[in-house]
Amino acid sequence: MKKLIVGEKWKRYLASRSRHELRAKTRFTDYRRRKAKSHLGHARPKHFKKDGIVSGPRVFSIIHNPIGMIDFFDQMEHMAKRRNVIVNLSNVESMTPDAIAGLLAAIHRCKSTGAHVKGNVPRSAAPKKMLNESGFRNYVHSRVGAREHAEMGRIARFTRSSEAFNNRFDQFLATDLIQFANQRLRGQALPHQPSYSVFSEAMLNTWNHASRSEDSREPWWASVYVDEDRHCACFTFLDRGVGIFGSHNLTLKLSLLSNLRVLNSAQLLKQIFKGEIPSTTREAGRGNGIPGMYAHCRAGRIKNLTIISNHANGNAESETYVVLPKEFVGTLLYWEIGL
């Protein structure tokens, strides 16, 4: 038997079978790519074999550390073009819920290149607790037992995938997040109209303005996290589209001021907050989205309203408007409600 196996005829047979299996595997891979391209509009991405590590900043917060988080997201997406990504959060010392939605959006973008993404949790107790209780683990693979935490947050999304929500404004999703927050805060699943109106405007604005082309729709992420220590619910709405100042539907006034650089992006955001930039549609009742959010914040119905988009960072409560030296690609809305 040994002589037969090592014989020249047997070797030729094994080599021929190996070549046949390789060709069959290649044909099957090509078939899957063609099928994916016909369904998705693009070829199935190739997967990488090498890994690269990207470390999160100590202050893991878009609203408090926008530049650090922009650098972190850029590193993730740059790495994902050529390697799998390992997200190292072990040195994170503080965290806010908006950054968790941002992390999920970054993971989603990295996976679209074919990269696998994996990582760890912070060593510090407070950010580790927030990450585990936020709903983050519903969107990532976790070891057995890792999901067994108190549910203090929920995260929802709209993407172009088959598992996504289909309509441009999901009133049930917004209502669910708000009622979840009030159930944890007040013991009753009550509505909150100001938060509902913010979600409504944010979803419609992303649908109408955030995409890079009129033929596609930009994914978005919406979340709530109930901070027991601060006795408040923290809401986030995030898309990674073109941002407020990158939309092809800019109003004439905003486009003119932006192109002529009469006002910087922070000053323009301030004017948008205060309703001094008209709606792109010129329809009655439109153009009140962000000014309406601003009015809710100034009246105390919501707190700490923050918008970060492109090079602008504005907070309606503190009336601070800052130009970011590095662009945040997309738009982030963050606000809170308390007891």
In summary, what is this structure?
With 339 residues, the chain is of the alpha/beta class.
Architecture blueprint of SSEs:
Layout: H1 2-6, H2 8-40, E1 51-55, E2 59-60, H3 66-79, E3 84-88, E4 94-95, H4 97-111, E5 117-119, H5 125-133, E6 153-158, H6 171-186, H7 193-209, E7 220-227, E8 232-239, H8 252-260, H9 265-273, H10 289-298, E9 303-315, E10 320-338
Parallel strand pairs: 1-3, 2-4, 3-5
Antiparallel strand pairs: 6-7, 7-8, 8-10, 9-10
Essential attributes:
globular; single chain; three-stranded parallel sheet; Heat Shock Protein 90
Give an overview of the whole structure:
By secondary structure, this protein is of the alpha/beta class. Among the domains are: 2-40; 155-339, Histidine kinase-like ATPase, C-terminal domain (Heat Shock Protein 90, 2-Layer Sandwich). It has ten helices and ten strands. A hairpin with a 4-residue loop joins strand 7 (220-227) and strand 8.
At CATH level 2, the architecture of the domain at 155-339 is 2-Layer Sandwich
How many helices? The count is 10
- Give the overall silhouette: globular
Biggest β-sheet strands, sense, barrel? 5 strands, antiparallel
CATH H level of the domain at 155-339: which superfamily?
Answer: Histidine kinase-like ATPase, C-terminal domain
Q: Over the alpha carbons, how many angstroms does the gyration radius reach?
A: 24 Å
N-C termini distance: 82 Å
Class inferred from helices and paired strands: alpha/beta
DSSP strand count: 10
Strand content: 15-25%
Order of strands across the main sheet: 6-7-8-10-9
CATH class type of the domain at 155-339: Alpha Beta
Helical content band: 40-55%
